[in-house]
Amino acid sequence: MVVAHFPAMLLFSFLVSVVFGVLAKNTPRERIIYGAWVFAAFVGVALVLGWIMYPVP
Amino acid sequence: MANKVAQEAISERAQPKPGRLIWLCAAAWMVPGLGHLLLGKKWRALILFSAIVIMFLMGIAMQGEFFSTGTESYLQTLGYFGEMCVGLAMPAARFFGYAGGNPLFVSADYGSAYLIAAGMLNALAVLDTYDIAVGRKP
Q: Which residue, B10, B30, B34, B133, is the most exposed by fewest CB within 10 angstroms?
């Protein structure tokens, strides 16, 4: 299966965020908030790093 | 102060026997989420199992590499131990004919990252099982 960079990164971020949320917090509400935060951080940092590295040959 | 009170509460609680702890951790390592299931955390077990197994299967679908300890590369050795943390999924994949990936395949690097991450997440799940079993976590 060939998966493009961005969907692969999104799926990876989602699955890791789900596990982090489940393991790190104790209530469902905290888990959802923390998981969403981790997911946003993964995607945001990846996009920022991608743009920073864009001019690098 | 609060920390001391919490520590005393933990020590007063009935501690599981070492044999049961080892069994729980081994079960959690062999099958993602099984440790939580044995502790009665059904939903947590289901979510962990689904996320880790999906990650492992995606790694296989992308032709991720099964590393070995037979190389001189420390990173590959670390990758081997990382992938081993996923438990029975690796031997099961070999049993069903997965030859260990194709490093020249276009998505192979992503696949390897997925496989190693699945193992690392399962290692966290094992530690979480231990914490729940000894009463450090609800």
A: B10
